[in-house]
Specification:
498 residues, alpha/beta, Rossmann fold, 3 domains, seven-stranded mixed beta sheet, 20 helices
Length: 498
Amino acid sequence: MDIYICSRFFVGAPSGVPYPHILLARDGWNDYSYYTLFGVRLVVSESNQVDLDETKIMTDGQLEGFENRPFQQLPSGSIIPADLAGMICSLSSNKKYYELLASLDINLATDVLTTLRDASFLADVKKKFQEQPCFQISLLRELVARELLDEAGAAFGSEQQLISAFSAKIVLEGASAPHEFYFDFHSDLGAPRRIHSIVGLNGVGKTQVMARLAMLMSRFSKQALKEKRSALQGDDVLNPVPSIYGVVAVSFSAFDEFDRPTQLQGEKFQYSYCGLQSQRGRLKNKENLLEEIKVTLAGLPSDKRDLLKKVLGNLVRVDNLENFIDAPEENEGLYERLSAGQRLAINCIFHVLSKIDRRTLVLFDEPELHLHPQLLTGLLNVLSEILESHDSFAIIATHSPLVIQQLPMECVHVLRRDRMTPMVLKPTFQTFGESLSELTKFVFSSTEADRDYRAVLDRMCVEANHDVEAVRAIFNNQMSLSADIYLESLMDRSAGSK
C-alpha cells in the first residue's frame, strides 16, 4: 500500500492515485524535541475515507530536532519512497487508532499496520527500535503507549510479547562507572522470581539506585518536570523498556530519596509513594498513618478488600482485624493495639494493594527497618501473594539476610564498591533457604567487617598470654562452634610462631 505525505489537516493530498492508500498529515507537536506525530487517513476509495486518528512515526536512528522529522524533505502530495518507508517504525498512543483499524476488514487493517511498520504488530520492528532513545522518549512517552505496544497487535493476530527481562544502567554522581543490573522476572517452574533484591553495605548506592529505578520506570522526576525534559534524557538507561505499567515506591526510612508526587502527578505517571515522609518532607506521626489507612480503605474495591482480609492474618495476629477493614472509624482501638512496626507493615500492604494493578513494579527500600524478623518474613510472604495475584513484581533494597534467604540466587544483586568503582555481583551459591550466617558472610564481607567477634578474640587471646583455655573459661566453656574453631586457629598460629 502506498503512503503519501501531506501538510497538517491533510492539505495537499494527491488526487488520481491508486486505491487504497494512506495519507499522513504532518503535525508540529514534539516530545522533548523529537518530532514524530502524524495524522493518519486511510483512503479506500473516493467515497470511502477513514480518519484513523493519530500515530507516531520515527525513522531508524532519529535524532532530536525539527529538521530530523520523518519525511521532512518531501513536499506535500509526494509519495513516500519504498526505501524510506522501509526504515520507519510507528506506534499510536491512542486506543481509538487501533479500535478504528479493528472495525475494518482484517486484511485491510493488517495491510495498514504492515505498511506503517507498527511496532505492536510486527515483532521484528519492535525488537529493532525498542532500545532507541526516540522510541523510548517519544513513542513511549504516554503510559498507555507502553500497554498498546504489548497488547494492540494481538487484536490483529500478532503474538503478545510481554517484556519481563531487562537491563538497567544507573550512573551515580562520583562513580567512575555505572551500576549495571539485569532483572529477569520470568517464572521458572514455579521458582519465586517475582521479587529481586539489591543488597550491600552502607555507602554502595542502594538507596540512590532505587530512586533512579523509580524515575526510569515511571518517567516521573520533579527535576525533569522543572527543566521541561524527559526523565529518560539522562545517563541512566533501561533496555528494553519492560512491560511495567505502574510503580509503587515504599520506604520505612526517614532518609529515602524517592520523589514524592502530588495526587495529580501520581495519576498521570501511575506512580505512588508510601513512606514516613509527607509531601512537604515532614515525618508522619501515628495519626497521619491512621488517616492514610482510612482514606485507602474508603476507596478500596471489594475484590481487593477480600484479598486484604485473606492476607492480613498472615501478617499480624490481632482478633477481629477484619472489623477494622470494614469500618475503620468504629474500630480504631484495633489499630491502637498494634505495635509501631505492625502499623508500618499494615500501612505498606494497604497502600500497595490500593495502588497495584496488572504489571506493577513495587520498589521497597529497606523493609527490615522497624520490623522484627518474624514480621519481616510475614511482610515478604504477603507481598509475594499480592504480586502473584496481580502479575506484578518487586525490587527490594535491603541489609537483611532474611530477605535474601527467601530468593533464588539469580534474583540477588550484590553491590560492592572498590573506591569509586561500583560492582554488581551475583552469588556463587544458591541463596534460597541458605543459612543466615553463610548469607551474611558472603553479602556483607569486607576487610573491615570481617573482623567482628574475631577481633575481640584476638585481643582476649593476647591478654591471656595465648592461654586458649583461659579464654574459654571466660565464656563458661560455652562458646559457639565458629568462635571455638577460630580460637583453635589462634592457638595453632601461636604454637607455629614459637
